[in-house]
């Protein structure tokens, strides 16, 4: 039995797979801010889903940069209680098997690149549009080599612009991240009906996508996360075709297709 998980700042999705390529069963539970309690809930849910069957291998995503050995979170604004806590070691002890950890955006992107909207494409640019903006470059179904990870959400789209939670100014995230949209327009993205607001947000996103496309040269751009479900794609594409003048045409911009399960499928891929 394979155990996979995707831990977010508020919820964690846990799944098991008996064949290593499909999710047999999965469940969403709240993420505890307390690390020990969080591990306990993770183990209890895994036991419930596996029906007591032996777990042979474990893989999952966590919401933030990992240490070099990919064993724990090193920073994470949403999960302070998990920072520098030995997640990999605790799970290895609990299951007596190998445990693979990766950044949650990376596993979400791998899932989409292998089984979702980016399937069949060589270079996939994945943008996770949740409360903040994450992203990853995937080449041949693997996260591309990198030194410190990928952070397209923290590219500057406006000199001296809106403050970003990371300490910077004018970052893409500070204009199109879910929590920033809520702060700027006093509405949650899914409730916004005003066309002029979406025009503005789409324009900012198109600037960010233009920059990501000229640097990453992807075959396709996949947008995931809750904000991507509300954003009017045709508007973003229209702005992008206006901005992106150096390439003969923009790559396809599509919405993610695996929903919240993307991370679990990506975690299964980590095991291959
Ligand atoms: Zn930032």
UniProtKB/TrEMBL annotation:
Signal peptide: none annotated. SUPFAM superfamilies: Actin-like ATPase domain. InterPro entries: ATPase_NBD, ROK. Belongs to the ROK (NagC/XylR) family. PANTHER family: BIFUNCTIONAL UDP-N-ACETYLGLUCOSAMINE 2-EPIMERASE_N-ACETYLMANNOSAMINE KINASE, ROK (REPRESSOR, ORF, KINASE) FAMILY. This is Glucokinase.
């Amino acid at each position: 039995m394979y155990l996979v998980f995707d831990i977010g700042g508020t919820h964690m999705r846990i799944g098991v797979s008996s064949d290593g390529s499909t999710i047999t069963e999965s469940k969403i539970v709240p993420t505890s801010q307390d690390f020990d309690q969080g591990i306990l809930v993770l183990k209890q849910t895994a036991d419930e889903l596996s029906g007591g069957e032996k777990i042979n291998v474990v893989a999952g995503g966590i919401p933030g940069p990992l240490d070099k050995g990919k064993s724990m979170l090193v920073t994470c604004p949403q999960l302070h209680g998990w920072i520098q806590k030995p997640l990999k070691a605790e799970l290895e002890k609990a299951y007596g098997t190998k445990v693979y950890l990766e950044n949650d955006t990376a596993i979400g992107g791998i899932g989409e690149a292998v089984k979702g909207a980016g399937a069949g494409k060589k270079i996939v640019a994945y943008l996770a549009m949740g409360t903040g903006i994450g992203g990853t470059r995937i080449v041949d179904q693997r996260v591309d080599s990198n030194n410190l990870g990928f952070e397209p959400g923290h590219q500057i789209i406006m000199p001296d612009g809106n403050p970003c939670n990371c300490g910077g100014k004018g970052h893409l995230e500070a204009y199109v991240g879910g929590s920033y949209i809520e702060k700027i327009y006093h509405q949650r993205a899914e409730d916004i009906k005003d066309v002029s607001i979406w025009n503005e947000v789409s324009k900012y996103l198109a600037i960010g996508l233009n920059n990501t496309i000229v640097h990453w040269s992807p075959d396709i751009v996949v947008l995931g996360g809750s904000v991507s479900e509300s954003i009017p794609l045709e508007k973003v594409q229209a702005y992008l075709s206006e901005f992106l003048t150096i390439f003969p045409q923009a790559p396809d911009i599509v919405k993610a297709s695996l929903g919240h399960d993307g991370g679990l499928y990506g975690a299964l891929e980590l095991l291959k």
